[in-house]
Amino acid sequence: MLIYLRPSFLVALVVFGLSGCITTKPYDRGPAAIVSQPVSQSNIKDASIEFAKVFCAINADHGEDLYAHQECEESLHLSDEIDVAELTPIQNRLRVFIVPGIFGECVAEDAPPFLYAREHIVTHGNIRTSVIPGIRGRASSNHNARVLAGFFRSLPYSKEKTIVIAYSKGTTDMLTFLAKENDETVLSKIDALVALAGVVNGTPLADQTDQFLHEIAEHLPLEKCPLQDDVGISDLKQENQLARLSASNLPTNIKYFSLPAYADQKDVSAVMYPTYRYLSTFDVRNDGQVIISDAVIPSSTLLGYANGDHWAIILPFARRKDAITNISSRAINALTTKNDYPREVLLESIVRFVDTEL
Questions:
Q1: Is 36 within a domain?
Q2: Count of structural domains within the chain
Q3: Which of 58, 114, 133, 200 is most exposed, with the fewest beta carbons within 10 Å of its own?
Q4: Crossing angle for the helix pair 273-280 and 7-18, nearest 10 degrees?
């Protein structure tokens, strides 16, 4: 999820949120029944230790040469001490596609998702990677699902394995596409879907502050992300997304993975203080936009939890600060105070781990 504002709206958001004036309405999850249970007792496979071993192995091997290097335990939330394993070669020829989040189109020039990490990953093995084009930042998931369907339908058949990393609302869009698509030829082109800080069950931000977020979205720069059928906020409401998930049967030929994120408030950018504090009334384990329990695809493999906020794990605002000229983006960047994160190591870890599962 990405809130992109004019400077006056950015200031308004921070003041509005810090003053505790975000209004709420009666909480209603709608018709979809849900439960909360330990991962060990659910249909989720916990691979957090195995994923951490890959992450730590990369970090030990060449992490010091990469941007924002930090110790493994600073990058991931670890419950156990991890033994560093030896890196093994990537097994498959891979094509890796990124599905951006809400309003991502609005800052595509300023902070493209995994920008430098994508440049890094292609140096390891036979890998191609790109951001899926045409995803509209101010559009419904139904609209973007049609864009995704067209993209994969036109994607040439290849012996490469295809990994899709869907970020934030990009996960919502991708799940909508998969639930609607019934062409097995199209679905066969996708081998794995990774939800990165994904909005799977929706987010209380959209439930409780729906009108406010709509008002924010209406003031986005039109020239960079023109309004489509909807601003996309309603797709992030829990009652809508849970109802959609309960009525969906996801394709079984695809392997599903989930990597939520959360951080302590001291490690969250100032721009996200209001939303982080609001979500903390539900669960302190949030990334400023999504609660970790709402970021896991049913029946997926849990890769663990990244220790960073919603933007830090994928959007290189801080690293791009000298290249940003747009006034609104510069205003946001000034409040993006905790944006350094080893994104190259994170992306390489995702790709290497998923490669072993294909």
A1: no
A2: 1
A3: 133
A4: 30
**Domain CATH code at residue 107:** 3.40.50.1820
Give the pLDDT score at 14.
38
Left, alpha or beta for 207 (phi > 0: left; psi -120 to 50: alpha)? alpha
Q: How far is residue 326's CA from residue 51's CA, in Å, rounded to a whole number?
A: 38
Q: Domain range for residue 183? A: 7-20+43-357
Question: Which H/E stretch holds residue 350?
Answer: helix 343-357
3-class secondary-structure state, position 356: helix
Tell whether 160 is covered by a domain. Answer: yes
For residues 273 and 17, the answer to whether their CB atoms sit within 8 Å is yes
Tracing tokens 């990994």 back to the chain, one arrives at 163
Range list of β-strands (E), the chain: 45-46, 94-99, 127-131, 161-167, 192-196, 255-259, 261-262, 301-302, 306-307
Q: What is the pLDDT of residues 91-147, one digit of tens each?
A: 999 999 999 998 676 766 788 999 999 999 999 989 999 999 999 877 899 999 999
Q: Which residues contact 108 (CB under 8 A, 6 or more apart)?
A: 100, 131, 224
Give the distance between the most distant pair of CA atoms in the chain.
55
Mean pLDDT of 21-46: 65
Give the span between the Cα atoms of 295 and 310, in whole angstroms.
11
Query: Is the CB of residue 258 less than 8 Å from the CB of residue 195?
Result: yes
- Tell me how far CA of residue 114 lies from CA of 65, 97, 190, 229, 321, in angstroms: 17, 11, 20, 27, 15
Please give the single-letter amino acid code of residue 100.
Answer: P
Top mean-pLDDT range of 10-19, 112-121, 209-218: 112-121
Among all chains, which residue has been given the structure tokens 């790709």?
351
Distance (Å, whole) CA 268 – CA 320 = 18
Q: Is the pLDDT of residue 231 over 80?
A: no
pLDDT at residue 303 is higher than 60: yes
CA-to-CA distance for 318 and 312, rounded, in angstroms?
Answer: 9
